[in-house]
């Protein structure tokens, strides 16, 4: 990967609530259907009104064109129109008006049908006439007006015009709109409630999936999801269980390999310590005794050799002290005889003695940790040693604190030993939690944690110190209530 390449983190999408999303979509579809239904209804009302006006206009025109109605002056046609009340009453519907125009465009006569029961229409119109009637009446009157020419032979002697009351048409449209809108609102409410409870019931097992993922992330690899009735959730359950099984097997294999590796390394350390103690230590003891004898002889018989004999004796003592320090690092104190707390206190005392006043080491230990099993206690001692060594070498810290406690795991309830090493040093930039980002000391700590089925967490940032936390399960311990 190029040095200047950047890791692109996908942009987080907004959280979508499925129930409310479906309800909004249903409401939108219902509103679109409402608009479509109203449009069709308005078109149908206008069509019916225009057809009624045309039927009345054609009937009036036919009535006025009857042969006995014509004489030489057109005034007789107007008189005939005025005498047609009985005819108009039969053919006009409430709200219709028929008018007769002469050739000059003057209204000669007109007749309008009354509207019994139109009070209800007027009541409805009051709520909308302030904005809907003025907007709609102008274009509505032109579309619904029907005109028919009255002729005598080849001559046009007048014109019949039939119109409908715009307010009554608008009130009819408004009545249908109110009815459809009420039905739509009721349908949206019913479908919304139905969708909410159906989706809520269908997605209820999602809580089990979330709980399972939480337990899996907390380290409980024995967690398994039940079979779900919903096909999609059933597939998720199968994949989750397969993943958990794979992780459990892989983690067990890795822990077994790490455990063998740690055991082999500890065995090699013990072997090296035994060789150094049995062979090199004895040789150095003999060398130191010989140097002391030479020094005594030189002082008595060869005073000129006394300084060299003194230097030889000091070098032998220095090498012996270094060997003892190396043996102490290779083979820590016997925990079985003195306990974990005493061993940790001795380790911290050695660090304070070696580093002097440049930095101070502190220990906070729970009295329960002495009940930890031997394998866990030995690993805990090594982890604290590696952690403090790492902080002393790289952190440039002045205060390093190790905290060791024994408690129950919050998810599984099994006892676990928690080790925390925190310093006030320079810290480090956040890096991916992979072994390639750690030094040998942290890799060794992780190997010991994995070998015992535990985990390691690192929390650090530039200028804000470094915190290392290791948790190791210990099934052999029984905590008191």
Structure description:
A hairpin with a 5-residue loop joins strand 1 and strand 2. This protein has 481 residues and is α+β, with helices and mostly antiparallel strands. Helix 4 crosses helix 6 and helix 8 (231-301) runs antiparallel to helix 9 (306-330). The strands form 2 sheets. Strands 5-6-7-9-8 form a 5-stranded mixed β-sheet. Strands 2-1-4-3 form a 4-stranded antiparallel β-sheet. It has 13 helices and 9 strands. The model is unreliable at 1-5, 69-74 and 432-437 (pLDDT under 50).
Please supply descriptive tags for the structure shown above.
Beta-Lactamase, 59% helix, 13 helices, alpha+beta, 481 residues, 3 domains, 5-stranded mixed beta sheet, Heat Shock Protein 90
Q: Which percent band covers the strand fraction?
A: 5-15%
Question: What is the alpha-carbon Rg in Å?
Answer: 51 Å
H/E element string?
HHHEEHHEEHHHHHHEHEEHEE
Structural class: alpha+beta
The mean pLDDT is 77
Strand adjacency order, main sheet: 5-6-7-9-8
Would you state the CATH class of the largest domain?
A: Alpha Beta
Which fold does the CATH topology of the largest domain refer to?
A: Beta-Lactamase
Shape, principal axes of CA atoms: rod-shaped
Secondary structure tally: strands? 9
- DSSP helix fraction: 55-70%
Number of helices: 13
Largest sheet features: 5 strands, mixed
Number of domains: 3
Distance between the termini: 53 Å
Low-confidence stretches: 1-5, 69-74, 432-437
Q: In CATH terms, what is the architecture of the largest domain?
A: 2-Layer Sandwich
